[in-house]
Amino acid sequence: MFKISLLFLVAGILIFAFAVFVPAKDSSITINFYETYYVLSSISLFKFLGLLGLIFAGLYYFTEDMLYSKTWSVMHLISFLCLIINVWTWGFVERVYFGNIESNLSNNNPSTTDLDRFTRIQQFYVGTFIMMIIMQFLYVLNLIVGLVYRKTGQEN
Questions:
Q1: CB of 115 within 8 A of CB of 98?
Q2: Source organism's superkingdom (predicted)?
């Protein structure tokens, strides 16, 4: 079985390389959260996620013996990869649907079904994005529970 730190290292390097070579310079991702729009550069976001993968690789490398569960570590890796997939596919969906909505608005012919569909898809992506961000704290929880059970096991 592979070490989780090695898998995070590979994922971080691949995501960082993706950020450098793939996205266009002017590409961005828009996140709507309670009527507030956050516009993030795709390159910066993927560089941050790649760096986050490298940070997790280092953390897992140095704290692997202190963690409570290997299963929690695998769940953390899967949620990290789902976060990357979520961000990556949202860029495609946003360009396809938002491009169509923008052209309809310029023709003064907005379709309510298109707007409703885009809003629902956007809510799904933002909800899963927030859930995957929260899941990144699984590492901290895994470490804390591991340290607590390790201390109580040593005291007995």
A1: no
A2: Bacteria
- How many helices (H) and strands (E) the chain has is answered by 5, 2
Give CA separation, 142 vs 28, 59, 71, 74, 113, in Å. Answer: 33, 12, 10, 11, 44
Length of the chain: 156
The gap between the terminal CA atoms of the chain, to the nearest Å, is 32
Cα separation, 77 vs 8, in Å, equals 7
As given in the structure block, the two tokens for residue 48 are 């941050």
E-assigned strand segments in the chain: 28-33, 36-41
Overall domain count for the chain: 1
Tell me how far apart the alpha carbons of residues 140 and 121 are, in angstroms, rounded to a whole number: 31
Contact predicate 23/43, CB 8 Å? yes
CB atoms within 10 A of CB 46: 25
Task: Give the domain range for residue 64.
Answer: 4-155
Question: Per-residue pLDDT tens for 6-40?
Answer: 999 999 999 999 888 877 777 777 776 677 777 77
Residue 14: predicted pLDDT: 93
